[in-house]
Amino acid sequence: MKEFSPKLQAKIDTAKEKMKPIKLGQIPFASPLLLAPMASICNWPFRLLMEDLGAGGTVSELISCHGINYNNQKTLDMLKIDSRERNIGIQLFGEDPTAMAQSVKIAESFGPKFLDINMGCPVKKVVSKGGGSALLKEPKALAKLLSSMKKEMSVPLTIKIRMGWDADQINADEIVHVAREEGVEFVAIHGRTRAQQYTGEANWNYIEELAQHSPLPIIGNGDLHRSHQVRERMQETHCQGLMIARGALRNPFIFLESMDESLSFDGRDYWEVIERLYDYILEAFTLERTRLVQLRKLIVWFSAGFPQVAKFRGICFQTQDIEECMRVSEDYFKTLTHQNKRINYAESFMTSGHG
Q1: DSSP output for 64-126
Q2: Active-site residue flag, 121
């Protein structure tokens, strides 16, 4: 694995010195700023990279309990945890208490620090079967699912939810109380309903009200795209932690900048991060095409806001192998300064169910 340059490592170390470890229920984290689970993104190379860059803990992409129980190899590959990961949870989704409970032992065998239930995914193919956000519709039925899983578990259980199904069914407070009765450690909440998908703005007034009166630790999530937003929220929040999702895709340094506002990162820093990611992806995947797809999509997101980014992305998407992708990216990122980056946060970004 390629080491970071002394210059970049010094900036990372400066920020990490300001990290304050926390404990949410039984679960320790290196800081209150966690990487939120994102479908098709939060595999171990990306999670480990984010830990390298200041995330206090991470959660896997959502993984089907049915795929685990059917011994589907693609699903089992999603459960993989690297030995260098320190504060990792595996997120499961499903609707059947028996199937979810059955999947627990296999998921635990991969070594997570905790298991998390996805109760926030708004995507139709998940909720139409009763999983994801659909679990919010029947809080009383939720107790059976939680208790069935807890009986089979040796690691802590957490949940990630939304405010409710729609504007007429905002019931996160009821969900939190059910979760407490069944021994859940903490609740992460995205400040939108299922009906909103990723439109509009996250309702932080609701999150703060919930956190202020919750019997369980609350982690707030939603629209934390900029480091100054994260810093301001941390200073005033009633939440015990915050989860950053899509913000880390356009700015991989968001955790570090959120801890130390004096830091800035230029194109050469981005290039070093891409080199580290390249090493992790080579370790994680054997197929050349998979390696290229996994690396290229993140490079393209990292480039957001830099000059001539449309031209760069066009060239990048035309690359035929991972080495060519790296050469093109090196030529581009090494010319960039911190002052070059100007992200248009008013643009919709990743609204298809990943973040």
Answers
A1: EHHHHHTT-HHHHHHT---TT--SEEEEEE-S-HHHHHHHHHHHHTT--SEEEEEE----HHH
A2: yes
